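Why do we bother with holo predictions? Because pocket geometry can differ from the apo form. Keep that in mind while you read this record for 5-amino-5-deoxy-1-O-phosphono-D-mannitol.
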Amino acid sequence: MCGIVAYIGKQEAFPIILKGLKRLEYRGYDSSGIAVVNNDSLNVFKKQGKVAMLEEFVTDKDTSGCIGIGHTRWATHGLPTDANAHPHSSGNEKFALVHNGIIENYAIIKENLINKGHTFLSETDTEVLMHLIEEISTQHDCDLFTAVRLALNEVIGAYAIVVINKENDQELIAARKSSPLVVGIGKGEYFCASDATPIIEFTKNVVYLEDGEIAKLSLKDGLKLKTIKNETKTPFIQKLEMELETLEKGGYDHFMLKEIFEQPKSVQDCMRGRLVLNENKVSLGGILNYKEQIVNAKRIIVIACGTSWHAGLVGEYLFEELARVPVEVEYASEFRYRNPIIYPDDVVIAISQSGETADTLAAIELAKSKGATIVGVCNVVGSSISRATDCGSYTHAGPEIGVASTKAFTAQVTVLTLMAMMIGREKGTISDERFTRLMIDLDNIPHKIESVLKTDAQIQKIADIYKDSPNALFLGRGINFPVALEGALKLKEISYIHAEGYPAAEMKHGPIALIDEEMPTFVVATKDGSYEKVVSNIQEVKARKGKVIAIVTKGDKVVKGIADHVIEIPKTDDMLVPLIATIPMQLLSYHIAVMRNCNVDQPRNLAKSVTVE
Ligand code: M6R
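The structure, written out:
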């Protein structure tokens, strides 16, 4: 959702920013723009649509200059038009600003500014902030750093901003509150971006701005940091661990496909150093300091959104089965507004791939204020959620660029499995024998995922048969019910086919009315505790002439005899089935979306990191 890139140094800014914006395309957007300063003039280029359209638009224009700011906008206030695209200039055309987030009190500020003679060219809250900065800089006759700081004291809402001044090509001003911003420190140059992906090829030294911080990136004075309350701060420089190759497609047609195929490795990376087979133990260093609170928790509350919420639902089965602790899984967006009952001995697990989801962050703050222990399960290192939690375990899945979450889901489930095993072991709710068996089975999961990936050609054929279905049903029971939900979400978000996930037994309470010979039903029917029941549910679909595509355990004969198609997956412990059963669902959605000519990596209307509520 919205992306910022900015540069100041000795190189041409425009190509660096343009490339950076392309790296941020995965976040989701509908217009883009870049402003550069060159010889005291401010040149702003903006275009509705993809960054490629902006690139085409500037082919005959002078984009030179060594300082600039760029933006990809995901529309909130006003349509995705050229006028509403960022950067926005001040009325006197001296400054330009890019902004992620929402200024909640923009309407009242705008009215005041109009009364003072300001006129606006867009419908955005961002342009209002730009004019407020201009107004303050004129009124107080102060430098841009001070004007931005004073303006931010007047706004309510969330922001990550970068501002340039055409009369000073030696500095950029950046600030953040509830929306991420990373500063990259090169040799005689600075970068600024919403995440590290546009920066990594230039420098690994970064500073993650904290909420309420404002930075001056000056070629003369270096990096200066203050709070918006005017307290001086010392920048904390960190080294990025990310590698550039992880941001490329590496020969695959889409990031999503690459990420699906990376899962044997990402699950392995997630377990590395944590699943200690020779010592028969699980070791999660990031939560050790809070082990006592976690093991003794009377209740676990999981908060998350989307796919991460589905991982949380799998976690519910894992924690209840292995650690015998009651679990509630909450949509962060509902939890934060529900006045929920939270006790200090509750443990709240916040799951988020991006670590920036606004609702999950707000839910964390609420739970924190009630004294609960907050554990994070995030993929993006240094993200806002990873910093807002008391402790946590990174998923180590590597950058996930496709908007549809795939490898992040299996990594989240892997972390939750490890946590449940660790707590169960400590509490004695899991026998030595089961623990050892689970360790071995978990260790084998990457190989099993590899073998499921080999069914890709078969899955492609099934996709071809059902690609034109307007609807689809996904069923699963027990720990595989969330797999059905996740399968439905994957299909709908990238192929725009309406899909519903249900616990298989719920089908007869309503969705069965939808079944006819046109309707495909995807069922997880692996050999586990509810196998016989799921077989009956499949019979019910077939009795109504529905089409059944079943994910079964290798060697299954019963379902093979009833279903229209079966996809075999290897046998594993019942608790680990979601880690492999989810793979065929991902591949099915991917192929169907490709066959329907959908933009798989950047589906319409979606954003990778949902930083507004
Ligand atoms: O970054 P997060 O895990 O917090 O994101 C949560 C959801 O926005 C995300 O999972 C979304 O549902 C994906 N598009 C699913 O593929």
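The chain has a mean pLDDT of 95.
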